[in-house]
Design goal:
- Helix 3 packs across helix 11 and helix 5 packs antiparallel against helix 6.
- With 255 residues, this protein is an alpha+beta fold.
- 29% of the residues are buried.
- A hairpin with a 6-residue loop joins strand 8 and strand 9.
Length: 255
């Protein structure tokens, strides 16, 4: 009886905490833009924050995995749902940088890759082998050399790494990428640096989210301050605190 009561109290506390956490970003949502309740809805919401035509079809719409953690509270649920979408062939996970993973619609990823293969004049056999590899089954986040060798030769794999279709940080382990990933990363990192600077220069290194969203500058305009703010919150670069004036973002000092 006591055990059941304790369990009930814990569940009640967790539910209350979840509701409180979810309420932090209510200002971003409305009847016209309802709050996402699952990963698929989150991805759709974040994609639509940006006019991706600005990149002239050189990159597909990209959602940073950390952004999802700012909207949905249960990180285990998020990771499980991403994995399900990946296994079902709806999305691919690309490695953007040491700390960033991008979630991309698989069809859009393949269309972008096919277009780039033609534009960059990649050897047809190498391009066809890579497309076949990406099409024939579920794509793991980490790809072993053994997996790639089912459709490609070692020289072809090296060519794909040099051309930016694959990236590798450890010998024999690879990640999907796109040749123009640097175009997105430059835009993303420049805007992120600008927004972090605004927060750090604010009194006590904290600022109301409503105020931060108004401070859109040249470096953040392309992706928009909401896009960046979701990453800052999800990656725990800032701590979000509820106040009577709305959510407050407080910069977290780096070790």
């Amino acid at each position: 009886m006591l055990k059941r009561k304790l369990r009930s109290n814990v569940d009640h506390l967790l539910t209350a905490k979840r509701k409180a956490a979810e309420a932090r970003l209510d200002i971003l949502f409305s009847d016209d833009v309802p709050r996402p309740t699952n990963v698929q809805e989150c991805i759709k919401y974040i994609r639509e924050l940006v006019d991706w035509r600005q990149f002239c079809e050189k990159i597909p719409p990209i959602v940073i995995q950390s952004q999802l953690y700012s909207i949905l509270v249960d990180h285990t649920q998020i990771d499980n749902e991403i994995n399900t979408l990946r296994c079902q062939g709806h999305v691919v996970i690309i490695k953007l940088d040491a700390g960033y993973y991008g979630i991309v619609n698989k069809k859009e990823y393949l269309n972008t890759v096919k277009r780039q293969i033609e534009e960059l004049d990649l050897e047809k056999e190498t391009g066809d082998g890579f497309i076949a590899f990406c099409t024939e089954g579920e794509l793991d986040v980490e790809l072993s050399g053994k997996q790639l060798l089912q459709n490609l030769t070692e020289p072809q794999i090296n060519t794909l790494v040099r051309s930016g279709y694959l990236t590798s940080e450890v010998t024999g382990m690879f990640y999907l990428s796109i040749p123009n990933a640097s175009l997105f990363l430059r835009t993303f990192n420049d805007g992120l640096k600008s927004l972090k600077s605004i927060i750090k220069r604010s009194k006590f290194k904290e600022i109301l989210l409503t105020e931060l969203l108004k401070k859109e500058g040249k470096k953040t305009k392309k992706l928009g301050n909401i896009y960046y703010s979701l990453h800052l919150i999800g990656a725990e670069v800032v701590k979000i605190v509820g106040t009577t004036s709305g959510p407050l973002l407080r910069y977290v000092e780096e070790d």
